[in-house]
Amino acid sequence: MAQFDRIYKLTIGVQGSDGFVLEGKPYSDGLNISFSIGKDLSQQTNKAEIKIYNLSDATAKKIEKDDSIIILEVGYSEDMGLKRIFVGYITEIKTTFSNGERTTEISASDGQIAIRNCIVSLSYAENVSRKKVIDDVAQEMGLVVNYAEDCEFSSFANGFSFVGTGKSCLDKACAGSDLSWSIQNNMIQVIKAGGTTKVEAVKLSAASGLIGSVESVVKASFIVAKENAGNSKNANKRKSRKQGYRLKCLLQPTVSPGDLVYVDSRLAKGWFKCDKLTHNGEYMGGNWYTEMEIHEIVEQESKK
Question: Which of 68, 120, 259, 276 has its CB surrounded by the most CB atoms within 10 Å?
């Protein structure tokens, strides 16, 4: 996977109208861009900071429209080709000039409009599946739902009515089935609480993209007993240790939080869950890397 064959495609526009595309081909054929993208499994929207260097005045004006969508695809021309690494809405644009170079700095948020604007009013008869509620909220948000294959859904036995933000309704619908949700690339991702997407995203070793040494990180966490989960004041808590690792590798745009990552290193070997990651890259610069925080899966399914 050579660093010199990096490519990108940046698409910006308002949904349902014309936009524009910037492309970078191998061997420095295109405008220079850089990016820093952070993703995790929290219900806060993922964020991206993208810089474009030396845009023309005419092109710069095209991105200064409310609620513009930005799509960034990156990859390697001689390996994976272009892969979508971020989809979100532009929240801020800043332009600076230094030594004759124009820098356009774009801040973007994944799922920003869906989280900000969606208010739902839903009512169901008895025994409605929580999956039905999740699907209906997603439709109101204008988003698609990706469910992990092991998701199971209970029902609202006495029916369900809700008026409020789509985000809060998703919280209620998922909690009763021991599920968790997040937004990844402008899609709702639903997995078991503490589980994974079951997607085997990438295998990393010193020969296939792993850079430097893997770092061991042990975190302590508190787990609330299920029977007391409704009363946080009196809930029984037990402390657990979570064995985790931090690693750096060549840019891996296909990995999302919750995916499975195989690591073959001196310190860690096997399948791990990706908790969070940061993508950093510059088309004409030195950066083109992904940093991940992963942790051991206690009950792993056998892998081929």
Answer: 259
* Amino acid sitting at position 176: G
Tens digit of pLDDT for each residue in 158-196? 999 999 999 999 999 999 999 999 999 999 999 999 999
Q: Are 161 and 223 in contact (CB under 8 A)?
A: no
Q: What are phi and psi of 3, to 5 degrees?
A: -75, -25
267: left (phi over 0), alpha (psi -120 to 50) or beta: alpha
Interatomic CA distance for residues 201 and 262, integer angstroms: 8
Report the predicted TM-score, pTM, of the whole model to 2 decimal places: 0.86
Residue 294 to residue 270: CA distance in whole angstroms? 11
For the chain, how far is it from start to end, CA to CA, in angstroms?
24
Q: Is 202 helix (H, G, I), strand (E, B) or coil?
A: strand
Chain segment 77-110, per-residue pLDDT in tens: 888 889 999 999 999 999 999 988 999 999 999 9
Contact between 222 and 239 (Cβ < 8 Å) = yes
Rounded Cα distance, 42 and 152, in Å = 20
Ranges assigned E (strand) in 130-266: 145-147, 155-156, 160-165, 179-184, 187-192, 200-205, 210-224, 237-250, 260-264
Separation CA 6–CA 99 (nearest Å): 27
Q: Hey, what are 265's tokens?
A: 């290193």
Position of tokens 């990651």?
277
Decide if 260 contacts 272 (C-beta within 8 A). yes
Q: How many CB atoms lie within 10 A of CB 187?
A: 17
Distance (Å, whole) CA 57 – CA 182: 37
Of 210, 273, 284, nearest to 243 by C-alpha is: 273
Handedness of CA 134, 138, 143, 144 (dihedral sign): positive
